[in-house]
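Progress note, project year one: complex with zinc ion.
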Amino acid sequence: MRCFVCKKPTDLKIIRPICKDCFIKLYERKVERLIKKFELIKKGERILVAVSGGKDSLSCAHVLNKLKHLLGFTMECLYIDVGILTCTNERTERVIKKFCEDRKLKLNVVRVKDLLGKKLEKLSKERRRPICSICGVVKRYIMNKFARENGFDKLATGHCADDMVRFFFKNWLGKKFDWIAKLKPIIPSEHPKIVTRIRPLFECTEEENLAYITINNIMIAPCSRCSYFLRRDKWNEILKLIDDKKPDFKINFVKSLEEVELKIKEESKLKECKKCGEPTSEEICAFCKLKK
Ligand code: AMP
Ligand code: ZN
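Model obtained:
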């Protein structure tokens, strides 16, 4: 095979044959263009990058670190130790620490157990709620609160094209159109206490992130994908089938998501939680309900 850009021989194929050098250049240029097109980051801003130790969030942190001088922003990382043995073992934390040390990036660590006073697994059993939904509530709460209290302008996550396609179908089937409206590269703050979220890898696929990590020799956490999250493999299988027939499906799908305008219903207007003061659409926020 020959690279479709420079015609050098290559054994790498991502939709089309591409050499490693050209792949890295195109990947980084794609992220840079997205950041500029949707004004994800402005000059002088402080960005908090949420890293789980997986290929997607570490790709996100690596590419942002490479672009930070060019685009004139600063960044720190945040790792949330959710305290689930299978996915937050010490090795994950060590991998993230090393990643940040190598790049002289400040790493902030928040431990769920210190905030909730209980392990998520125990809470999940007591509340008879799937651990993934509890974990999601807790992570979103901590990420936003930490970013705001520490003066960050934006919160960046490693969500990528595959996540957007999966979220779309899940929420469409559940008629959660408000959530679909948020499948965008930037989710502007709807409340003074909510930090604007950005998804620099919105147009990158998991396959591209894995190639980016591998070519750059970046070590990822051995078990960064939570074992409780296997259910999403069904979607992976479905996406794989579509991919085989239509390799550019995901990228065209997210580009359409970028353009579609869906209205968020009025009643989803945010208030402040009566207990902790964090933004919520209910009287008491989901985190405080869990804690109680
Ligand atoms: P997930 O919901 O596990 O697919 O993760 C989506 C994004 O949330 C990741 O790309 C990270 O940016 C962020 N994230 C997930 N888990 C953690 C964690 N334990 N600590 C910090 N950020 C996380
Ligand atoms: Zn090339």
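The first helix runs from residue 20 to 37.
The CA atoms of residues 86 and 227 lie 7 Å apart.
No further modelling is planned for this target in the current period.
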